[in-house]
Design brief:
Length: 338
């Protein structure tokens, strides 16, 4: 374990923003992490946990001990007729896990192909795409309590998963570090292709017979066509959550905007795509200096290189204000601000 000082976090966040970590350390096992947390030298120092840095907006230097989780490993820990239980280190790259399951012929993660970030960060916000959320394949996770360095397991019902939500973003915020996640993947595939674009893309690809691999490839195609590659253009995927509004408000807006899309999520709740609202408010493709709103998906804010976190934050606030003025809907960021 090598402790570094004043380290640039630029290579460690997908927005490519410059900010310095006062202290920086990489841990490769849960035991190493527990030792670090028990060391009196660090007990009073604030800590900040870094996975893939794909959901964070750095607006300032981080005056803390930044702990980068580099815990690797994938192993089958249990198997029955229908499922394989795969225990994965928190530092594994999410998409590499997906590819590993596709190669092995296990289904369940294919709709979540190409999501940036690490395995440990995935349950934090219950990542989801194309009709599947991680909670559907989640068995349990292992975490370490930051203050006491005690290890603890969390079953699905203890994680309080919701849309881009978990207990780790709410009641237990800042208290635990996830070190491993066990997934329950299917030996007998249960394909989820109801999300419109998937069927269309599979047809374009001339896929005759559905397979885990074909779905993964379709999702990769869709994402590559809409979402900027963070290695080329800095971004953190969707910047805002899709808002849920009361049905009465939706019905009223629909009269004024007949094209307004919406998905029923509860008897009186409709989820509206934030990308649509932002596009209608005129922001799609907007650019000011080195920051902007992506031209092919308005929900993604981008750093063309050399932009600052403050500039992106200011742009996000302008987008929020104009969507609220036009539609009366308040957008909540999905990205975490530092
Ligand atoms: N739309 C527009 N203009 C835009 C963008 C979207 O009109 O600029 C409309 C589309 O036409 C479509 C609807 O909005 O009717 C939904 O668009 P899309 O399928 O691209 O999905 P999204 O709702 O914008 C969510 C997730 C994505 C995930 C996709 C696919 C959130 C906050 N985002 O986006 O997740 O990949 O669905 O399931 O829920 C992420 O979280 O970083 C992320 C990329």
């Amino acid at each position: 374990m090598q402790l570094l000082e004043n380290v640039s976090l630029r290579p460690y966040n997908t927005f490519g923003l410059e900010a310095k970590a006062r202290y920086f350390v990489e841990v490769t096992t849960a035991d190493e992490l527990r030792q670090l947390l028990q060391n009196p030298r660090w007990q009073q120092v604030p800590k900040w946990i870094l996975g893939g840095g794909s959901n964070v907006l750095l607006t300032q230097d981080v005056d803390a001990l930044v702990i980068r989780i580099a815990i690797k490993g994938m192993e089958v820990v249990k198997e029955d007729d229908e499922h394989v239980y795969l225990r994965v280190g928190a530092g594994e790259v999410w998409h590499e896990l997906v590819l590993h399951t596709v190669e092995a012929g296990y289904s369940g993660l294919e709709n979540l192909s190409l999501i940036p970030g690490t395995v440990g960060a995935a349950p934090m916000q219950n990542i989801g795409a194309y009709g599947v959320e991680i909670k559907e394949v989640f068995e349990e996770l292992e975490a370490v309590h930051i203050e006491t360095a005690q290890a603890r397991r969390f079953k699905a019902d203890e994680c309080n998963f919701g849309y881009r939500e978990s207990v780790f973003k709410r009641d237990l915020r800042g208290q635990y570090i996830i070190t491993a996640v066990t997934f329950r993947v299917n030996k007998v595939p249960a394909f989820q292709v109801s999300y419109g674009d998937i069927q269309k893309t599979l047809a374009e690809m001339n896929v005759q017979e559905l397979s885990t691999r074909a779905i993964s490839e379709a999702v990769i195609r869709i994402r590559q066509s809409k979402l900027p590659d963070p290695t080329q253009i800095g971004n953190a995927g969707s910047f805002f959550k899709n808002p849920e509004i009361p049905k009465a408000q939706y019905d009223q807006l629909k009269q004024e905007y007949p094209e307004l899309p919406g998905y029923v999520t509860a008897p009186d709740k409709i989820k509206v795509p934030a990308g649509w609202l932002i596009e209608q408010a005129g922001w799609k493709g907007f650019r000011e200096g080195q920051v902007g709103v992506h031209a092919r998906q308005a929900l993604v804010l981008v750093n063309y290189g050399g932009g600052t976190g403050e500039q992106i934050k200011a742009l996000a606030e302008r987008v929020q204000a104009s969507v609220e003025a036009k539609f009366g809907i308040k957008l909540t960021p999905e990205v975490n601000f530092i």
